[in-house]
Amino acid sequence: MSDNTINRKQFLRMGAAATGAALFSGIGGTAMAHSIEEPEYITAGAKEYILTNVRLEDGFEYNEKKEVIATKTNLYNVHIADGKIKNITTDKPDGKLKKVDAKGLLMLPGLRDMHIHIDKTFYGGKWNAAPRKGFTVKDMITLEQKIIPELLVDSQYKAEQAIQLMKSQGSYFARCQCNIDPVSGLRSLEHLLKALDNNKDSFGWEIVAFPQHGILYSQSEPLLREAAKMGVDFIGGLDPTTVDGNMEKSLDTMFQIAIDNNKGIDIHLHESPPSGKSAIEYIIKRTEENKQLQGKTYISHGFALARMDPKDLEGIAEKMGALGIGVISTVPIGKTIMPIPTLKKYGVKLMTGTDSIVDHWMPFGTCDMLEKAKLCAQLYGWTDEYNLSRALHIATTNEVLPLNDAGVRVWPAAGNDAHFILVKASCSAEAVARLPKREGVFFKGKMIAGQI
Q: Which residue range or ranges hold the Amidohydrolase domain (predicted)?
């Protein structure tokens, strides 16, 4: 890094720039989305309390064919202290502790949005569904080179609005993809870090330093190396053949930056076979060679997995599962239906995310990870009680579910972090199928969205 490069702590201590709200007021037009106000924390000033009358799943109900036909639940009192679940009981709650009545709402694990671009969103500003300039990734890079200066003007404000939207939909955590490119330099990252830091008491995050314009194509390696010193968690990459033009050199550069800085990897891979298949095989090879990246390497999108020969897919999925290489999919519809059942069969880590809320790429994002679970159920025909309940795994931390496959409750448990949502549903299967309102969203025991 050069002598004048600031680190994360330095620029977070810098005086805040003109607020996004002020900037927003000057761009004209009607707001696409009004500010989402954070609720008054129901636990304000209380590090310990009891959530009473909480509905938890107890097990499955089976028919004579040993098929799951329903989910059994009961009401409990959940003792929360210092951001964790301390105890779960049906006993009369301690009279000395603060009590919050959940009124029979179902408790489900908190949701995570594990692939989202909030550093360059239109969300929080004027509605914009402008036509895409071309159809290739390179066409979109050309468009971004023109509009990024405009997006940077109030990107911190819009990122904060997007964070509030994620909270309202039940997500307490996000993996944020952040542009690192010659046009924005490190400013997108600086603005994003400030937005996240302003929400540090009510939201968790990871950041991917993402070379949207290509590591080689835009000569972004020096910028990525600077970004690696500024509080990011993963080094990204982009289509090493169709954008960067040299698959091995592109992937080697990405891997080396991650290794040099003790970061993980999360690459955008849109390519179809044969180049997409070759890239995945090379990622497997490099991950196998570098043990420190096993369990810390992710392929976002990975459309080649949906388009390769089923026999090739089985072998690749088995290797990915063994090396801890994960897949983060937005669960696309249309011709590219991701092979999630096959990936799950081999233990590949699966996560989902919004990608774009509304930007120059796509206008359809809702930030609803429960909706992504429902989409999985619809795409793969998971229409029964058991499989609907399993669909939730793609949206939760470490794919945790209230009941394991045998119907034994494994969440919540004493010692778990108190990240959860409360919904009006009889069970997780109904929640996935019907998408109930998030009545309460909790982060470390604090209510960060909703009202109960």
A: 160-424
Number of helices (H) and strands (E) in the chain: give both, helices first: 14, 16
Contacts 24+ apart (CB under 8 A), 284-288: 284/316, 284/319, 284/320, 284/323, 284/325, 286/251, 286/252, 286/255, 287/323, 287/325, 288/319, 288/323
Give the global pTM. Answer: 0.89
Task: Establish whether the linkage from the previous residue to 274 is cis, with ω within 30° of 0.
Answer: yes
**For residue 243, pLDDT beyond 60:** yes
29, pLDDT greater than 80: no
Distance CA 354, CA 96 (A): 42
In 3D space, the residue among 311, 321, 257, 249 whose CA is nearest the CA of residue 279 turns out to be 249
Dist CA 246 CA 243 (whole Å):
8
Helix axes 137-152, 187-197, angle to 10 degrees: 60
d(CA 31, CA 359): 15
* Partners of 355 in the β-ladder: 116
Determine the Cα–Cα distance for residues 6 and 354; give it in Å rounded to an integer.
30
Distance CA 109, CA 111 (A): 6
Residue carrying structure tokens 């997108």: 188
**Which letter does DSSP use for residue 373 in this model?**
H
Contact 237, 254 (CB under 8 A): yes
H-state helical runs in 62-197 = 137-152, 155-168, 187-197
Residue type, 43: T
> Which of the 8 DSSP states describes residue 154?
T
Indicate whether 166 pLDDT > 70: yes
Average of pLDDT values for 285-298?
98
Residues 110/171, Cβ–Cβ less than 8 Å: yes
Residue type, position 61, single letter: E
- Which amino acid, one-letter code, is at 192? L
CA–CA separation, 144 and 359 (whole Å): 11
Biggest CA pair distance of the chain: 72
Ranges 86-90, 95-99, 215-219, 431-435: which has the least confidence: 95-99
